[in-house]
User: Fold these one by one.
Assistant:
Number 1:
Amino acid sequence: MINVAVCGANGKMGKTVCAAVDFDPELVLAAKIDIAGDNVYKSIEDAHHAVQIDVLVDFTQPASIFENAKYCLNNNIKIVIGTTGLSDEQIKTLKDLSQKNNVGCLIAPNFSTGAVLMMMFAKLAAKYFDNAEIIELHHNQKKDAPSGTAIKTAKMMAEAKCTFKAGNCAEKETIEGARGGTSYSDIQIHSVRMPGFMASQEVLFGSDGQTLKIRHDSTDRKCYMDGVLLAVKHTYQYNDFVYGLENILI
């Protein structure tokens, strides 16, 4: 049995993860961690001192995830990170800590298998199109923008070529930010925050005479659970560092 702790256990994603862990016969929900609520540990450190934790799943906030992850990797707690907002430099630091301490760490911008396939399809299409942009849409309580999924998608596409603005004219924004943010290989990312959405992303490709749209929509948080459980079991078994669920799906 794998003893799992969930950090951010009283959040919407945290509650869904707790239920999924409880339902899986190979896992035990060893600790719920949150800053508020009853029957929870108030910190990872408190839980670590009280119970055996094999793998910790973190769905908290961008402001806290880096310190949470460092604590785990420095204290022999394997970690699965679903919280987005980590910078490239922070991800590199966590990779170095994971490898130095031989403690498993898996960071996934998105745990939905459909969303991961969307990213993989976008990477494949990037070989054949010279122009591309990304639109991501989330609920208005999401604090980081662009989403981790959009950033990861752009990184994967950027492996194909150095720019996706081939043939674009010189641009001038009359309203700052109208063209979105410029990411890897000049891919523009547009972030929408609005009630009514949960999580959606569309990757747009264009060339003379044609466009291609690759879109994924999440309508229920349950769609992430197969990926979360897969990540927990992988991280328990291996002490590697993984960035992106696609690396354990293949």
Number 2:
Amino acid sequence: MKIMLDAGHGPNTAGKRSPNNFKEFEFNSKVADFVKVLLGNYKDVTVYFAHSKKVDVPLKERTDKANQLKVDCYISIHANAYGTNWNNANGIETYAYVTKPKEAMELAKKVQKNLVIRTGLTDRGVKTADFHVLRESNMTAILCECGFYTNKKEEAFLRSKTFQETCAEAIVKGIVDQYHLKKKSTPAPPPPESNTNYFVQVGAFTDKKKAEQLAKELKGKGFDPIVVDNKGTVQK
């Protein structure tokens, strides 16, 4: 499977930055980097970049490249904005083309769901738009808006490596679920050296319902998750 990752805009795009001068492309490109690394863990997946970290690549050049390579899937990664000053606009939304192509809508819903669950940000829904990268690409294409850089709280998230990695993990989870990608075989882990227990946290939320929603999803995958509060008390 061939996947094109498109970090929206470019290093020199005018505007496209927060009131604190944080460039949207810095977020977009770092998430794209993390997505590429994560997809490298799956069988028969080749990843391309539509963007460049040195120059701004025109939109037509991006979609032409994707069409020439005949990629199977085009993922455009963005952060959102409302005006140019700080405001309260917030949340995550994912777009497909206005004709609502079936596979693109299905992929958009999966990616949107995982972004909302993993980040805990407001769900603005799956929407349609006549964006160039959605209209001129010959393959399944979606565009993700991963929070607002005109919102002080979300801009701080967008600057965070942890948040960037979280968004990348969510995007990859949506792709894996849509296309049933299989992980490359890995060697068995070594036996434990002691009776020490180790724990893996997969999410942290201020909203208990979101924590319970993720736990329910994990149970459906065959895991046995628990929800605990910040005092270590297991929630029933």
Number 3:
Amino acid sequence: MKRIPSILFLLALLLNACVPAATPVATEVSIIATEAPATEAPTEVPAAPANPNLILATTTSTQDSGLLDVLIPLFEEKTGYTIQTVAVGTGQALKMGEEGNADVLLVHAPKSEEAFMEAGFGKDRAPVMHNDFIIVGPESDPAQIKGTVSAIDVLKRIYNSGSLFISRGDDSGTHKKELEIWGKAELDPKGQAWYLESGQGMGATLTIASEKEAYTITDRGTFLAQQENLDLLIILEGDPPLLNPYHVITVNPQKWPNINYDGALAFYKFITTPEIQKVISEFGMLEYGQPLFFPDAP
């Protein structure tokens, strides 16, 4: 009878040996979970706009300088909109807005822009950036302009010398500025044999002036962007009246209910953000050693 407890004791030991330990397994699982690589957050994809198609009417200077080649892909990636760019003179861009053929404008003729807003064609308007106009011409400088500090005096010398001058003649912001200076000089070059109108954008007008060894007025950005292909020099710069400000304007949906106002407002906000203003301030630095535009958004 005394052997029974020993047998029961041995059986108890055998049974305990068959039961797996719980604590080490739990520890191993917790180690595996801790060492598992973190899953990368998915890339944020912008929600698809209800109407993704947006028409931007802008100047040839923003196109020819290469700025839009930088800004538009950024906008499309961030917002999901697709922009159709129409690069024309500012007068034509404003006309497109008046007729409801554009959703948003990027232009540079303040007086015409103000008239556009006062007539109710624009809803929102904000400063974006500026550069300046310069007068360029051949190295020979036939009108002996070098050293002159006033754009008015420059045009007077061109007029009196009969030196060849190429005007855009396209109602653009640049053309409006040129006509403004001729008006202040109290001179009318129309009809003069030396005064030619290209009827084209800034890039093409610069090419014609270079080929004909003529003077012209241009925005600095387009000139710097194309300088390598031109036989032209800066003849006059720095005259305060030659400041060249750009504004973004949304077309008024109360005038044209079918325009894409949501898209226009998205572009308006995008181009005035600190992030994009920084992009504008740096554009041209790497290639030309100076910015082509200076940011103006508050």
Number 4:
Amino acid sequence: MQFVVSKQNLQKELGFVQGVVEKKNTIPVLSNILIESVGENTIRITGTDLDVTIRCDMDSEEISAPGSICVQARKLFEIVRLLPDAPVSFKKEDNDWVTVKCDRSKFKMVGVGRDAFPEVPTFKSAPTKISASVLKALIDRTIFAITQEESRYTLSGAKFILDKSGARMVTTDGHRLAYVEKKEVAKNGDRDTLDTLIPRKTLAELTKLTAGFDAEISLGMDENHIYFEVGPRLLISRMLYGQFPNYEMVMPKNNDKSVEFDGVLLNQAIRRVALMADERSHAIRFHLEPNQLVISSQNAEEGEARETIQAEYTGEEADIGFNAQYLQDFLNVMGDGKVAFEFKDGNSQAQLRPADGGDYEYKYVVMPMRI
């Protein structure tokens, strides 16, 4: 195989693909990417860890000998990133080694045979489409609430539902829950309902693929995989299996007390007070009293902190403990604007949401801590 490609295009596509490449080296071939020619002037780059696969198509400047090569993903990315801005030529040698030339630079890389690289599921085109910006917004508003504990398998991704009413994404780690919904977003797929669990790694890669991509994404599913076609790039992911918790049961139904805050001011106050919170529990206290919220924390070894925020609150005094990081995760995503804080008492789950509603129905439920 022999071909020439643009350095800028190659670096961009390698950046997408190497994100999914196996890093633990449990199966050595998975640290490689497959580069092959497709048709007269297209080069296809594929990387996989067997759970998530990314396939990128790019134009070549010349394909003088079609074929395929398999090379170490991380090392190739490091090389290409430092090359001058000039065409990059690849040539496969007889022993599967690959020669890479660019301007005055020349590298020889150890390759592996094409047969060693795993087969990738074939994409079945689907009529269901969703705007890339909508999908990215759903992920950004929920991904932070996915559990980091590998043992909690069904919580290690997002529940994603797409039907004729709209798109919903829900995540939880057992201590908090993020829910976001956008009405009437799917195209052409009104008859098809997608209801699946998407792994966290897949969501993280999707945010990279959808950044700066303004068009629509095509979605498809088979028995084991979900497919996202983002322009010339295709992401294939295994779906998670298992019973996702009944999130509707977690949503508070009788939070009869509500108060609004400036989201940025609340976030900054929590961040300052959290400096003196216990490093393991991140526990802070909300003390609500007429017309103000007092946020406080204390640490037996380092000291304590306290900050007061003015608030239009006329209810009874209440004390609620929270993990400061959980509140900050939501407020960081929400950004500017007013946030509505709704609660019942110090022992029941509280709910935060944008006070103005907006284009998305966005709710964030947090369990209180004992303080």
